[in-house]
Amino acid sequence: MTHAVTRTRSRPRSAWRDILIGWSFILPNFVGFALFTLVPMLAAFALAFLDWDSYGTPEWVGLDNFGRLLADENFHVALRNTLFYAAGHIPLTLVAALTLAIVLNRKIRGVQLFRTAAFFPYVTSLVAVAVVWNMLFNPTAGPINQVLEALGVADPPRWVASTDWAMPAVIVTSVWRDMGYYMVLYLAGLQTIPKEYYEAATVDGAGAWQRFWSITLPSLRPTTFFVLVMLTIQSFKVLDLIVVMTDGGPGRSTLVLAQLVYREGIIEGQFGYSSAIALALFVIVLTVTVVQFRFNERRRAS
Amino acid sequence: MATPTTRRPGPPTIRRRPEPRLSTLRRPRRSLLLTGLTGLVLLYSLVPLAWLLINATKTQEDLLGSFGLWFSDSFALGDNIVRTLTYDDGIFTRWLLNTILYVVLGAGGATLLATLGGYALAKFDFPGKRAVFAVVIGAVAVPNTALAVPTFLMFSRLGLTDSPWAVIIPSLISPFGLYLMWVFSSDAIPDELLEAARVDGAREFTTFFRVSLPLLGPGIVTVLLLSMVQTWNNYFLPLIMLKDPDWYPLTLGLNAWNAQAATAGGETVFNLVITGSLLTIVPLIVAFLLLQRYWQSGLTAGSVKA
Fold first, then answer.
1. Hey, is A60 helix, strand or coil?
2. Backbone dihedral angles phi then psi of residue B269, each to the nearest 5 degrees
3. Least CB-packed of A233, B243, B249, B270 within 10 Å?
């Protein structure tokens, strides 16, 4: 009881103390976010309406950059490639991560080690990833095609050397890299499902598949939503892997939006135009994410 | 403590699980399908790394001349490592030291800031808290590329491009780390404990270091490991900020070797690229293996309640 009294009496002082201490703890972070996220974000927004290359002086041009964007064939190609990548990367990573989580959610010896091993690709340096997979996908000397030929495939794809197969090769590589990370999230989700559900279902005579469809998947809905949103944001932002693995080639077959921003902005010095592309990319990501949230809320409500 | 404590607004807390480590489900029967799947996904995740390990033992000629997924007659791992470390006046060692510098200052600093900030968000009430949260979540969604041009312009105006600061300073800010530490702090530190320390007259910073910090161990390890991965493997930020190869981290350096190996005129150093890649990933793999208990439980904190 005395404790409660102390609490009420000291509240005004403690409120001030909370404010002061709270802000002093958070201040370095806040300054950082302001300087390196907020300010660049506002700057990018403003730059999109300017005509500014590395030589000239900035000039206000209104929506000109966006008009140029709509007519730019590179933008169309990059948008199509980004959507293709997302359409492959999002579902495949999700399925691979869920599969890994389910097979590694068993009481077998050394399962923790296996989990860590499945996480290794996520830790692997990007350049190493690109080097390894480019060699694996090598049309003649690579093990993938050697195995395919041994299995009787007469004319295996030329992967990163072909305009049709380069993007699928990139997708296979990126699924490999990311699945371990999302596996951990799914493993966490699996822990929240009460064991009694499974026991009751088994007593009722439900098979493994039935248990999966009627217990595991519905119970994992919150995790799946979180994974889906993270994967979507990540897929539309993809850049590093493509730069080191194919550099957008062969031709423009793996050129993505983020890479176009980089090319126009940093390499060509077209600060205004590249910011317009960045803004378009940001709007796309935001729209997709908002739609996902809406959809999730409606499903939860029903 | 019998007095009901008022809950502060903050992130929803995680349902406390009976045991901190990931537990496993007991399966009544081993199904054939599951065993087959296990084999398949483990093959998918491990074969590429096995390839890297195997091919780091080969000479330049054997790399293309022998089957990729098995050892060749020569065993040149030691030789390859020595050549990687000494090639071009030991530039690889320089890149390694640069990377360590960026990781220690960047990831270390990011973890420190995220811990302080996450703790404040979880345990103190102050105006502007909601705004901070909105900014943090927004920062996760913004594509790095969208910020690249303005950030580059800012640093070049400050005269900081082509210096280690251009890589270290932006690495200090980790929205995901801050978020994770917030969730972790509100779950791991009971309010009663802080109240007790305050009643005893302990100063806030003393309380933070003596009482709170030890409880945040697994969270800090997780954030530190994830920031380490980010900084150690950072490619894009150094790519736009650095021109001078003397300041390159391993990622940029290896990519330069790789590009050199791919062009017709350059000296083919594929075996060095492969051995270098192996050397690059070993430290992180060792760290994750040794600390697997911490991050496997720590990572789950941010996701369970999503």
1. strand
2. -125, 35
3. B243
Taking the C-alpha atoms of residue B155 and residue B135, their distance in angstroms, rounded to an integer, is 22
Q: Please write the tens of the pLDDT for every residue from B71-106.
A: 777 777 777 888 878 887 878 888 999 999 999 999
Task: Judge whether B50 lies within some domain.
Answer: no
Lowest mean pLDDT among A16-30, A73-87, B46-60: A16-30
Using the 8-state DSSP alphabet, how is residue B247 labeled? Answer: G
Q: pLDDT averaged over chain B?
A: 77
Let me know if residue B25 belongs to a domain: no
List C-alpha distances in Å: B137 to A66, A70, B133, B177, B306.
27, 30, 6, 11, 13
- In the predicted model, is pLDDT for residue B304 greater than 70? no
CB contact under 8 A, A121 and B49: yes
What value does the CA radius of gyration of chain A take, rounded to a whole number of Å? Answer: 25
Tell whether B126 is within 8 A of chain A (Cβ): yes
Tell me whether residue B49 is in a domain.
no
CB contact under 8 A, B124 and A25: yes
Task: Tell me whether the omega of the peptide bond preceding residue A12 falls within 30 degrees of 0, making it cis.
Answer: no
Q: Is residue B33 part of a domain?
A: no
Asked if B260 is an interface residue toward chain A (Cβ–Cβ < 8 A), one would say no
Q: What pLDDT shows up at residue A5?
A: 41
Strands A50-51 and A59-60: antiparallel
Given a cut of 50, is residue A287 above it in pLDDT? yes
Alpha carbon distance A292, B140 (integer Å): 16
**CATH assignment at residue B154:** 1.10.3720.10
- Better-predicted residue by pLDDT, A98 or A25: A98
Domain that holds residue B140: 74-304
Count of all residues that appear for chain A in the document: 302
Helix A271-301 vs helix A64-71: angle between axes, to the nearest 10 degrees? 80
List, in sequence order, every residue forming a beta bridge with A50; answer none if it has no partner.
Answer: A60
As a three-state string, the secondary structure of B61-113 is HHHHHCCCCCCCCCCCHHHHHHHHHHHHHHHHHHHHHHHHHHHHHHHHHHHHH
Contact B45, B62 (CB under 8 A): no
Residue B158 and residue A36: Cα distance in Å, rounded?
13
* CA A123 – CA B166 distance, rounded (Å): 23
Percent with pLDDT over 70 in chain A? 94
Whether the CB of A290 is below 8 Å from some CB of chain B: the reply is no
Q: How near does any CA of chain A get to the CA of B213, in Å?
A: 14
pLDDT of residue B23: 41
User: How many domains does chain B contain in total?
Assistant: 1
**Joined tokens for residue B280:** 């690059």
List chain A residues with CB under 8 Å of B236.
Answer: 239-240, 243, 262
Query: What residue ranges define each of the domains in chain A, with the CATH number in brackets?
Result: 2-47 (no CATH), 71-301 (1.10.3720.10)
In angstroms, what CA-CA distances link B146 with A178, A282, B7, B149? 22, 7, 38, 7
